[in-house]
Amino acid sequence: MTDTDPLLSVDDLHAHIATADGTVRAVDGVSFDVQRGETVCLVGESGSGKTLTCDSITGLVSSSQVDVSGSVTFEGEELLSAGERRLRSIRGNRIAYLFQNAQNALDPVYTVGDQLVEAITFHRDVSDGTARERAIDLLQTVGLSRPAERLDAYPHEFSDGMRQRVLIAIALAAEPDLLIADEPTSALDVTIQSRIIDLIDDLRRERDLTLLLVTHDLRVVASLADRVVVMYAGNAVERGPVEAVLEQPGHPYTQSLFRSFVGQGGTNGPDRRTETVGRDGSIPKEGCCFRRECPHAVKACRGDEPPFEPVAGVEDHRAACIYHGDRKDARTVLDTAPQLDRGVTDDD
Ligand code: SF4
After folding, report:
1. Is 55 in contact with 239 (CB distance < 8 Å)?
2. CA of 334, closest atom in ligand 1
3. Which of 84, 243, 260, 319 is the most exposed place for a label (fewest CB within 10 A)?
4. CA-angle at 322, arms to 278 and 341, nearest 5°
5. C-alpha to C-alpha distances, 13 to 23, 108, 119, 156, nearest whole angstrom
């Protein structure tokens, strides 16, 4: 591996779920890289496949109903074909996962200290005494006062924000290189959210952590991300440097996502799945996955899946839309007011 190789590389990742009604392509060919030390945000509405993408990366998809394929490499090592033992060693040691719901992620019958010490001794060959000292340090690191005292408390004695800090401490226990944080503030009171995000940002800088962050919140994206991957219906539809994507979104879905966020006054993000997956609730099987909702769709959008093309000639800002690449009329079309009825019928 060279210094310029990505720490994490996701290539054509699929996670297909077998259901009684057929196969659901919950993640459908997602590709992106995460360079060492950078923060990549996965953005999209609920149900767009962000969490399943992260679960697939870390081998946390437990259901036999889910078929995961493609390639995920971490420091050049393929994870999708790695055995459970190897994966378990990488998870926690090198890749840590911060879950959404601190209330459910901690075991209510064990003290915070028990859970933190267990996380430390699972990954490090140290005595219980050393692990306890380290646990105190970690609680202090995540901003909990009186850390020695807190070790003997149970999760229910903590507020949501304090429980999330404990989860962050557990995630840091083995000093991972990559932290995957899945909506780490979504279950928190709005007044606590920014403090937790600030904490994650501080820790990331201090520890030179690489961060893959799933979020609805564009304010978080704007303040933390180096690069953004926008997901819709299991597909990555746009990716690029944060400034480029925020200033000049190239995919009509990204545009509508941003408009809806602004329309909601910048609250904790849109949940528009029932509005956007298609008028009958389905995703087109061919062509562009967004075409049933796209105000700019034309007949060509029903053909092949649109390739990722540079937006406005910027090589590392790409969108899966026919208006990019060789087309010179992208901005003319995409910047015009949406035309909801362009006479495009859809008989899928
Ligand atoms: S390819 Fe067509 S349907 Fe898809 S986003 Fe672009 S214009 Fe819309």
Report:
1. no
2. 7
3. 84
4. 45
5. 16, 35, 30, 38
Name residue 245's amino acid.
V
- Distances from the Cα of 132 to the Cα of 77, 89, 98, 253, angstroms: 33, 22, 21, 48
Amino acid identity, position 41:
C
List the one residue out of 290, 284, 287 whose CA is nearest residue 272: 290
Q: Answer positive or negative: Cα dihedral of 34, 40, 44, 49.
A: positive
CA distance 210 to 57: 15
* Residue spans per domain, the chain: 251-334
**pLDDT value of position 313:** 83
Q: Which residues line ligand 1 (CB under 6 A)?
A: 251-252, 288, 290-291, 294, 296-297, 301, 306, 321-323
Q: Which amino acid does the sequence have at 218?
A: L
Checking if the pLDDT of 13 tops 60, the result is yes
Instruction: Show the tokens assigned to 124.
Output: 């490090």
Check: CB of residue 260 under 8 Å from CB of residue 81.
no
Task: Name, in order, each residue with C-beta under 8 angstroms of 94's C-beta and a sequence gap of 6 or more.
Answer: 74, 75, 174, 176, 177, 178
Q: Is 3 exposed, middle or buried (0-12, 13-18, 19+ CB in 10 A)?
A: exposed
Residues 6+ apart with CB under 8 A from 253: 230, 232, 237, 238, 276, 290, 293, 294
Cα of 276 from ligand 1 centre, angstroms? 13
Output the pLDDT for position 270: 42
Any idea of the CA torsion for 48, 53, 56, 60, to the nearest 10 degrees? -80
How many residues comprise the chain? 348
Rounded CA separation 133/153 (Å): 16
The answer, as to whether pTM is greater than 0.90, is no
Ligand 1, closest atom to CA 301? 2
Q: Which atom of ligand 1 is nearest to the CA of 237?
A: 5
Q: What is the pLDDT of residue 22?
A: 86
Q: How far apart are CA 292 and CA 297, in angstroms?
A: 8
